[in-house]
Amino acid sequence: MDVLARGAGLAPDAAGRITVLDLAGRRHDHHRALRAELGEDAVTAMAAVAAPVDEFHAHTEPRSWPEVLVSLHAGDGLASDFYREVTVVLGEGVLGEGFLGEGFSAGPAASADFAADRILALVTDEPRLAGRLTLWARRVVGEAMTQAQRLVGDDPALAGLLTGTEAGPDLAAASNLFARLLSQHNRRMAELGMTV
Fold it and tell me: Residue 118 in contact with residue 15, Cβ under 8 Å?
């Protein structure tokens, strides 16, 4: 949330700043709802993934408004796909009431859509920007995949949970999950005229 709030400061106008700050606020609301539902379990779960998340943000801090937009589109599109994959295995209630229902429009999908429209406008006005933003998207998604694979590799129980294999981690199933996420990301980027 704090990275997103800092990114709002890079917006070229008040409308962009307000929208990104609103998206950060929605994330905070969802975070608060999960904490209310899970109590201390939520804090414990977050502590277990703090290092990879911090490392991800350290390597993908946007330095410009176009990078903020691509981070939103690529990162939140990936998160949206991941949440949908997780609900297939764990059920819809795992992410908090309504997150994947009508309320999902306030989640990662909403920020990915917000960013897509603005990225299209930017690369239409300045076609050469598409190449640089494609590289930035690769960096964001590559770092996300690296940290996710690190988590799964370090925690066999998590790998088993994500792949629905209680007997232990199914690394082939985890690899297939990551491949599906990457394929969906590539499709989204192609829709913006940015090949990866």
Answer: no
Angle at 84 between CA 88 and CA 71, to 5 degrees: 155
137 contacts 74 by C-beta, under 8 angstroms: yes
Q: What is the CATH number of domain 50-191?
A: 1.20.1260.10
Sequence-separated (6 or more) residues with CB below 8 Å from residue 49: 151
pLDDT digits (tens, 9 = 90+) for 24-62: 888 788 778 777 777 777 777 777 778 888 888 889 999
**Distance set, CA 97 to CA 94, 101, 139, 176 (Å):** 8, 8, 32, 28
- pLDDT for the residue numbered 139: 93
Q: Cα separation of 179 and 125, whole Å?
A: 32
Q: What is the pTM of this model?
A: 0.80
- Domain-by-domain residue ranges, the chain? 50-191
Q: What is the pLDDT of residue 100?
A: 44
